[in-house]
Every structure is written in C-alpha cells, then in structure tokens.
Amino acid sequence: MKIKQSDYDSLKRELAAIQLEKIVAHRAFLLSDKCANKPKDLMMRLRWDALHSLRMGNWMSENLYTYLNDEHIDTALKQIACELWPDTFNAATMGK
Predict the structure, then answer these.
(1) CB atoms within 10 A of CB 9
(2) Sign of torsion, CA 9 10 13 17?
(3) Which among 14, 25, 68, 74 would be 20 to 30 A from 86, CA to CA?
(4) How deeply is 80 buried, as exposed, middle or buried, from its count of CB atoms within 10 A (0-12, 13-18, 19+)?
(5) pTM for this model (two decimals)
C-alpha cells in the first residue's frame, strides 16, 4: 500500500466509529428494490459510502489526495474494512 501508516491509522480510527449494523443495513438497502441505482461493485460502494459518511473531505484533500489517487485509497479501505468488519468484508467478497 502506498498510504502512509499515520494516514492509514487515522482512516481506520474514524471508520471504526461506524457500527457494523449500519454497514449491514446499508448493504441490505443497496441490494433491495428500494435502491434505484444498483451498484456494479457492491463492496466498493459500501467502502466509499462508509468513508463519505464521515465527512472527511477536507482532511482527505489536504492529506490523502496530495500523494494518493482513488485506487490507492480504495486499497487501504479494503484492508481496513476487512479488519473492522471481517464478516461483511473479507477477501472472498472484496471484488464483488
């Protein structure tokens, strides 16, 4: 991963505040008939929706996007999601 350890730790600390129940409920919504725009990559959508729910846009612009692109950030998000919510995000579901 290209992300600095301090930035990774900051992301993980902030994401850890999101309860698993919210992730599971959001996943259920995205899979339901109520969701008009079904995501092509459900796991990626969950990772980025979780990140955006934290409203860290300014911090991301000032810290992450100065040296990372979305692919680099998503790699870190995959790892963090597997660590925080292993039953929902695991190696088998990361590409789905």
Answers:
(1) 12
(2) negative
(3) 68
(4) buried
(5) 0.89
Among all chains, which residue has been given the structure tokens 């612009």?
Answer: 61
Residues 3-18, mean pLDDT to the nearest whole number = 97
Handedness of CA 11, 16, 17, 20 (dihedral sign): positive
Closest CA to 5 of 84, 76, 95: 76
Q: What is the DSSP string of the chain?
A: --S-HHHHHHHHHHHTTS-HHHHHHHHHHHHSTT-SS--SSHHHHHHHHHHHHT--HHHIIIIITTT--HHHHHHHHHHHHHHH-TTTS-TTTTT-
Q: What is the structure's pLDDT at 91? A: 55
Binning pLDDT at 50, 70 and 90, where does residue 96 land? Answer: very low
